[in-house]
Amino acid sequence: MSTLGDDLRPTRMMWKNVGYSFLTWVIVFLCVAFGIKWTGRITYFTMGLPIVLLFVFLGRAITLEGAQDGIDVYIRNTNWEILTEKPSIWSAAVAQIFFSLGITFGIMTAY
Fold it and tell me: What DSSP designation does 64 have?
């Protein structure tokens, strides 16, 4: 079932997105309403949980069947000598990092 019609207008409400938006606004309200003490507590939760989940997902991903084949292809079979043979790769990588950061970063205006 598509959420966009032929005229690219929404055709139905995505209730999960509405719920997540409401949850986000509740967290913002709690941060503003209860001051610095609660803001710190909420920040510990909202920053700590995603980091913990990243490690949980990483652990789950490397235990899946065939994960070792992917690790071998992308890490073990890489030609690392190319980094010393062609120094221009480093400048291309740095340029890619700058463009990936976005325009609002100060380093972009100095670049």
Answer: S
Instruction: Give the residue ranges of the chain where pLDDT is below 50.
Output: none
CA torsion angle for 84, 89, 93, 96 (degrees, to 10)?
Answer: 180
CB-based contacts of 1: which residues, under 8 Å, 6+ apart?
12
Distance between CA atoms of 90 and 73, rounded to whole angstroms? 22
Distance from C-alpha of 98 to C-alpha of 108, rounded to nearest angstrom: 6
Whole-number Å distance between alpha carbons of 50 and 47: 6
* Dist CA 99 CA 105 (whole Å): 10
Reported pTM:
0.49
